[in-house]
Amino acid sequence: MKKLLSFVLFFLVGSTLYAGGYRVSIQGQKQLAMGHTGVAVISSAESVFFNPASISFLDGKMNFSLGVSGIIAETRFENKDFGDVNSTESGLATPFNFYATYKANDWLSFGLGVYTPYGSSVEWEKDWSGSHLVNDIDLKAIFVQPTVAVKISDKLSIGGGPIYVNGSVNFNKNLNRSLVDLNGNRTNVTVEQKGISAWGYTLGVMIKPIEKLNIGFNYRSKVTMQAEEGDADFENVPGSLPNNLSDGKFDADLPLPAEVTVGLSYEFCDKFLFAFDYNFAQWSEYEALVVEFDNDAGVSTSPRNYKDAETFRFGLQYEATKKVTVRTGVYFDQSPVQDGYFAPETPRNDSVGYTAGLSFKVNDKLSIDASFLYLHFDEIDNSYDHYQEGGQNVPFGGTYKSSVIAPGLGLSYKL
Amino acid sequence: MKNIKYIAIIALGLVACEPELDNSVEDAGFYSAGTADFSNFVSVGNSLTAGYADGALYLEGQKYSYPNILADRFSHAGGGNFTQPLVNDNFGGLTLGGTQITDNRFVLSGDPLALSILPGTPTTEVSNILAGPFNNVSAPSAKSFHLLSNSYGDVSGVALGTANPYFARFASSSSATMLGDAVAQDPTFFSLWIGNNDILSFATSGGVGVDQLGNSTNLSLYGPNDITDPALFHGTYDAILSGLTANGAKGVVMNLPSVTSIPYFTTVPYAPLSPADPDFGPQIPTLNGIFGQLNGVYAFLGVPERSIVFSETSASAVVIIDEDLVDLSAQITAVFLGSPAFVPFVESLGLPAAAAPLVANLLGTTYGQSRQANANDLLVLPSSSIIGTVNSTVAAALEAQGLPAAMAAQFAAEGVTLPLEDKWVLTETEVTMVANAQTAYNNSISMLAAANDDVILVDVKSSLEQLANAGLSSNGVTITDEYATGGGFSLDGVHPTARGYAFIANIVLKRINTEFGASIPVTNTGNYPTVYID
Fold it and tell me: Which of A75, B1, B58, B243 is the most buried (most CB within 10 A)?
């Protein structure tokens, strides 16, 4: 167990990028392999996340799932008018998840989930052509979710629990497009705050109307990450600049939007399981990134104007042998980013996720789960038109192309 | 086991995750050089080519020299490496034998922000000769004929004023010429912007030099602030262009902007003396009383246009020396001395009657060649710091002649009671001399460029006129010729800012794209800095 803990802690360092704004849809290796469906799938402790109600129907007294993925993401940016070519640094980000369930009696189950559904880690080349919007950003949020589920009947269960969120933000950008010190070093600001706490909750309903068919519903509440009195560090500020840009504090809010998922799963031909999830995320909450500084930088408002976004997920599972179960899936992920609001801090357009994976049963209790995600983005010509200099909008745009792969590995244990 | 897995994951990521665009700007042929060949680009010129700004040549300025910006753009279409004779630091001053010989750069500093010279010890030693060749063959203050001079790069001539410290730093030998060092690199493409100093040094000095119009042969008579004879310019330019195109290189030549397009000559108004100024306004009646006597003499001598009157309601023109006026010193003195009203006037100033000859002489010598400025006179930028101040040298001299200290100071107020010296003003006549030479040079440049199919003319003159009249805009920024705040000109008021140079580079690029059938991306002017704050 100690070893397990250190393994988890190791991967706390980075949880990251991709899937709708700064949402990262990698909350379980088994379910990811099935297109990240799962609101109506009863399979493992991963259900703590996908639908807390369904843990009532799990086999076994106790279930554990542990998983981690390595996200390798890169975005390329080109601007034909100016010949700009830029890429994000492709670091390895590692969203992880840990779930446990415990069946207290026939109708009452408890669960615990620790996972990282939000995050963004984008690092452009320092002082690149969009550096007045972002040089690099690192958002992290770890969700801890105690869960209780009540089986009302053999056909109906409800579940839910509070969510405690602990997050951090680190964001660096240049102050504008051209301000430098005497030696040409760009004037920039880093805002940083760690240990931001917030609360939310999740509720789920699981219905088994007929044999082999499950219908699930899950609601996850909005969580607002509030940075208060974070550190604002201004660098390369010309000393005689009339504006006071000394280091100080900042306040900012970042919404992690509410989302609703409904779906079904259906077993057929004995060994097959089909799952479908429809997901609706209330991204329209994210109207603007407002950062309030306590010096002359004042209030920096960057309109975001996100729209609500839908995701359609399809997954298939096949028990190939007694030892091996294979999975695959596809999902269509709508970007919440609207035209003209395409900011390089979340260079996100619509994407299609292709997933695959397998579980290998070591014995009756333990299985190893592997998953693989390839997220396909078409290249897109888009711009962020709401950056202002001297009272006028100065668009920044070009052609973006992102590419994401995320291989993952997990363990499931059943008692 | 886990380690192996993760190594595998990382390796997989590295091969699988490089996003590529269908039609990338890095694809061969995305941009085209057209009929030009940028593989060896050489740029020849003066301070404007060197990247000089803020009154000095410093590293940041060189980074944003217009040919360096061009070379970066050319790299999208087969352009090669572009080297520059970089200075050592961002102070900008030069030393010769350890002694500083040029000033550091101007910056804005203090509260409120004011112009100042950046303090610090510069480290660019002229006698440390750099090993070239350098693609940027340019030297601040070079005139057209300097490009052909074989003594211009001799470091031993720098102290004597016969060589240029900037060129001496990187000349290939002590007898190298700038043109020779450029041609020896066998350029495939060149840019040439020369001739500005053939008029500009005369203009910035307020016209203290001589117009060498008609002297196309005897260079030994040319002083540093003289206007080059247009015939000499024509022959010189022809020789330079012939040299640069001898091996079939294509190139661009840039013509010469007007002095009225640059803030050095347009910032200080000819009528800056405001009656609202507490140091000046209350004295206007007294001043007009004294000048009333002088104006009577001017009228008597038949030159009433020289009258000096300060308005109590609106800003008045400064008083200037105009070299082109007939010197009436002796006549003025004589008329005063012959006037029965003069002794009472001298006594009304609180001076003894015996001082009358002294005062008459003083008035004669001071106002013998003076007049108030008009809208066609251009006051140079540095005059802003002396107008209205007491010239202590003159005041001391007056005191030595017997005037009381307070009165000596009153008669030594620059531009008010003491006419501004020639160097502070480019008078109407001098402006015309400069404009005539400029027109002649530009005609030569146009004619010589038109005669060679490989050479295109870039009309920088018109672009800078537009900049001065309406401003130039692109990529969310507008630059104007407003001093310090306009964004187009650096703090010396003559040379562009980095952003100004970027605009110029884009103007050149657009011409290259049109005339050579190239498709080279322009640069994003909004990303370039303007004036620097300490």
Answer: B58
